[in-house]
Amino acid sequence: MAVISDQTARGAKPRDRAGGRTRARAGGLPLLLNAVSIGLGIAVWWALALAGLKLPTPPEVVAQAITLIGNGTLGKDVLASLTRVLIGFALGTAAAVPVGFLMGWYAVIRGLVEPWIQFFRTVPPLAIIPLAIVLMGIGEAPKIFVIFLAAFLACVISTFQGVVNVDRTLINAARVLGAKDAGIFARVVVPASTPFILVGMRVGLGSAWATLVAAELIAAQQGLGFRMQNAQLYYDLPTIFVGLISIGILGLLMDRVLLMAERKLTGWQERR
Amino acid sequence: MKISVQSVTKTFALGKDMFTALDEVSLDIADNEFITVVGPSGCGKSTLLNILAGLEEPTSGRALVDGVPVSGPGPERGVIFQQYALFPWLTVRKNVEFGLKTAGAGKAERRERAQHFIDLVGLGEFADALPKMLSGGMRQRCAIARAYAVNPSILLMDEPFGALDALTRVKLQEQLLDTWSQEQRTVMFITHDVDEAVFLANRVIVMAARPGRIYDVIDVDLPYPRSEDFRLSPEFAVLRNRVWHSVYHQDGRSSADSGTSLPSPATARS
After folding, report:
1. Would A258 be classed as within a structural domain?
2. Domain carrying residue A88
3. Under an 8 A CB cutoff, do B87 and A179 touch?
């Protein structure tokens, strides 16, 4: 049979096209603008500090950061916070993905589980803290539990949405190609909902991180939130700044890692 | 008979009302026949195809394939959808291998068969590309290769070229006939394009809406292979006019025969 060469086929090989787009997006200008913006922000901060607002100057914060790193406090706090958030987030996601799939796949399970999820979704995880502390004491358990809850709720809804939104035509296409329920689930529903799950994981991670810091503000002996709370008692503004910046940077780094995973796993999507 | 549709009726609940998508439709299709089904929207042509595919069940009557009533989809009936329905996370090759994998074919066999059909539809260069990198015409060719790969004896095509531009459409029609002449199958091809219906088929089934029913059957008694010469021939024009009138003047035979009145907006929309 004659090969039909479409305009697109003749015009460019697929990889070239994709490559071109990536290059255009990752151009140097936005990066430069980002850097300029950060520089300006620090300059404004510095100016405000010098103008007599009760802010520490950037060098004071850097000096404090070096001290805290030097005596190991920052390292321990970061480790404590990260451990909590990662355990809570991992448990939350691990529970949310199967529950979300079951809800999307079986109407019965959806009917049984949905009211609880909808209810707990309207209760901020932080509002659970008093209850969790009473029931689980002041150790790690209540903190990890609220983080788990935050991550779980964000991720379960979006996994469920992903399963519900799987294109019927794709399921029909799999059926006419001979796939049975198990095959359709593993080979169509799971990959088709991956983008939703990853978005849910990102939202869940953000939510877990926010909950963590708040949980540590209330009851902890270690961690970034605790350190800031403690510094507040001593009017130690540079330490509070170090804590804030660490939280921001760590949150950003974790989000980037998930974003990279998302790009890698869902690069097949038409739009991004 | 390869396919036998026997007094199939299909009704849907539309709110409180019942909508009759198919009303006592009967149709026989012989082995290796290429039939096209054309008609206004709402005439039940897609419903008929879905019943044969096993994706929907008739309310009454039955559909037989090789003398056996259809129950659920099966590998002997390949379906090609208008929206391509390629798995976007799989490359062209993996898409074509999908049905072979379900059938339990080994890795080497899968690869070989997939390659054969990818080459057959002219996508060899794009075997490892993802669907998002392909044009509409290439996507549909990939879907055709995917359907062919599981070696169905019947191909059910639901407006497969409906979303393509006119040029690509003509090319794909010729290519489809080409593929069909190399690998004979019984084909049921749904379209709303009268030219396409006549060009491809050895029999055109015209359907009417409300209720969905077979309105007319027009034999296209002209030999294959068909090419551009056929498309521009007077015989083609005559048949095309017949089908056109049958599709667009369903309010009465008389107006269809006179051939002067314009199609009313209600029936022309499809």
Report:
1. yes
2. 79-265
3. no
How far apart CA B204 and CA B234 sit, in angstroms, is: 18
- Calpha distance B112→B119 (Å, rounded): 11
The answer to whether residues B80 and B143 touch, using CB atoms and an 8 Å cutoff, is yes
Domain count, chain A: 1
The pLDDT value given to residue B179: 84
ipTM: 0.83
Assess whether pLDDT exceeds 70 at residue B83: yes
Mean pLDDT, chain B, as a whole number?
88
Give Cβ neighbours of residue A189 (< 8 Å, ≥ 6 apart).
A101, A104, A105, A163, A166, A171
B75–A178 C-beta distance less than 8 A: yes
Shortest Cα distance, chain B CAs vs residue A74, angstroms: 43
Q: Would you say B28 and B5 are in contact if contact means Cβ atoms under 8 Å apart?
A: yes
CATH number at residue A88: 1.10.3720.10
pLDDT of residue B50: 93
Tell me if A35 is assigned to some domain: no
Low pLDDT (below 70) residues in chain A = 1-27, 219, 271-272
Q: Quick one: pLDDT at residue B121?
A: 86
Whether A40 is in a domain gets the answer: no
Domain ranges of chain B: 3-73+155-164+184-268, 77-151
Instruction: Give the alpha-carbon dihedral of B33, B37, B38, B41, to 10 degrees.
Output: -170
User: What does the block give as tokens for B48?
Assistant: 């008929």
What's the pLDDT at B227? 85
Q: How far is B6 from chain A (nearest CA, A)?
A: 22
- In CATH, what class is B3-73+155-164+184-268? alpha beta
Asked if the structure places residue A24 within a domain, the reply is no
